Amino acid sequence: MSPTGQVVRVDSFPTHEHEGIKLRPGRVMPFGATIVEGGVNFSIYSSHATSCKLALFHRGEPEPYAVIPFLDEFRIGHVFAMVVYGLDYEDTEYGYIMDGPNDFAQGHWFDPDKILLDPYAQIISGRDVWGEMPDDGALRPLRSRILQNDFDWQGDRPLQIPMEDLVIYEAHVRGLTAHPSSGVKHPGTFAAVREKIPYLNDLGINAVELLPVYEFDEFENWRMSPDGSTRLLNYWGYSTVGFFAPKAGLAATGHLGMQADELKALVRDLHRNGIEVILDVVFNHTAEGNENGPYISFRGVDNKTYYLLTPDGWYYNFSGCGNTLNCNNPVVRNMILDCLRYWASEYHIDGFRFDLASILGRDQNGAPLENPPLLESLAFDPVLGKCKLIAEAWDAGGMYQVGTFPSWGRWTEWNGKYRDDVRRFLKGDSGVTWRAAQAMQGSPHVYDPQHRGHCASVNFITAHDGFTLMDLFSYNEKQNLANGEGNRDGGNDNHSWDCQLPGATVEQTRALRHQMVKNALSVLLLSHGVPMLLAGDEFGNSQGGNNNAYCQDNEIAWLDWQDLERNGDIFEYTKRLIALRRDHECLRSSRDAGSPTKNGYPRVSIHGVRPWDAEYGGTTFATLFCGDDDFVYIALNMHWQDVDFQLPQLPPGFTWEKSLASAVDADHPSDGQLRVPARSVIVLTSTTQGV
């Protein structure tokens, strides 16, 4: 007992000393740097290292003030662990020095001259202000820091909104507010997104899906633009430096080391406004690249454990980014689980979208696994039990699993087939009407209604990777020269159309583009499944035809909020579509899709120009969604001429009324008939007024 009468734990006393710094053997779990009584517990795994040292820095200093070896008694199994006493948490940065074999063919890259990031670091310094390069032109090394998890959540918890009720808004934290027109105090930051919450509420979305928010290096492979006017950076951030650490450069307070609290405040305020937070996570590769890439962390800690390697030591590249994380190695699998549990518990994150998720199902030789243990573990993990799990169900190695991604009743998918089929139908291609009609029903041809259901499909027409919706109807070809890759990067098969008709005036072309954007929004937001809207599409954002703006930290990729006024008709139309979806359960749910309504109508049905007579040979069809006392009819005409639809008869006491139309000159239904203008959509809803 201490002189003050407090009970002091025996294991809180130092047992060793190194150059005046007091130490003791540490606890092996959890990995990373954890504040304990009187000190910090440092724990790191490496199965192949022969020794390990802890390098301690005063914040911002280039050289360590202490390098402390882990003694033999500080190692249990393959884990080095010790407690260091008397550290100033806010002033301390740290890294590890690992020694061991350096044998390329055997997969070992140990180098005792490298100081490495902690794979479990919860906060990282070195890129504290976005895009800021030191005056000497040298980039500051990335360093691990110690995080005090003392944020006041004020009773917040994840929202657990049912999947079928979600309307997802995919956004880049910086791109959302970096443009001068955004009108925020700290452009391009978590704090600035908080200022846009009233806008998100007005729009009506209830989930934001944020592109990578954990630490990446925006200066990775940076270069000047072809015309020398701007720096091309790693803007999107799909190249992880630290899986557990929020990116300092995306925080207004990053230079103060407060990025964790700033992100938590954003999550808390979004939750207060009924908006879930889904994080885009990148477990398929890291920023260390291929054999010519830098030492940052994993390569020097235990290269053979963390990466998929060929038998002669080269990196497998199923990510297209130089390396592939060895996700189904038990140690790496546990790291991914630890990471997601950490974000779910410490940041109250509601769900995760997994970039190139098919990689997570490859074995240590790169072959697809029939029952991938990592995907199964995530599906049944107790901490992640209420989190949304969304897979980008393909990878750069040729594996494409849309509709076949292992699910265990938990995984949903970005539906790339939906995107392609709907795009082709909207531009008037023949032979795709049946697939477009299936898409609006929740893609039952892709997702078995009995086993997976329509909510397995996250529907999207555009995403960060590709054309914006306005550009989809403004360009026939990508315009990526500004990326400095000779227009070779980015997809070529875009199914886009520039809406240029012979003899059309500029205003007529503009009107047609607006109409086509509204057509796309109508299909997206009125389809069964989970709609995902790309930020800015709701007000006609353009990237000038660039369909791969991964490196464009400038006006190309930033949202220009002046478009909200210029294209206000699109914004108002989007709001009304989202409200329509919210107000009509039949547009969201098909729990009883196999049974009729009380009036005998099927829950979902496809019609041609005549009711109950689906015709798939042309470019028109209609979808009828029915509830017990609720009916929504969507007529789609992508033909270049007006088409008359005969409407299905409603039960006694109901009549049709026009709710929305993408064409400004669309008529109301009359005498059981509806004329749908060329290349347009009309939405009818049932009413009992005037009957």
TrEMBL record:
All copies of domain Glycosyl hydrolase family 13 catalytic, residue ranges: 170-581
Keyword Cytoplasm belongs to the record: no
Keywords associated with the record: Hydrolase, Transit peptide
InterPro entries in the record: GH (IPR017853), GH13_cat_dom (IPR006047), Glyco_hydro_13_N (IPR004193), Glyco_hydro_b (IPR013780), Ig-like_fold (IPR013783), Ig_E-set (IPR014756)
GO BP annotation list: carbohydrate metabolic process
Domain of life: Bacteria
Keyword Transit peptide: yes
A GO term, aspect molecular function: hydrolase activity, hydrolyzing O-glycosyl compounds
Family per similarity comment: Belongs to the glycosyl hydrolase 13 family.
Name of the protein in question: Glycogen operon protein
Highest classification ranks of the organism: Bacteria, Bacillati, Actinomycetota, Actinomycetes, Micrococcales
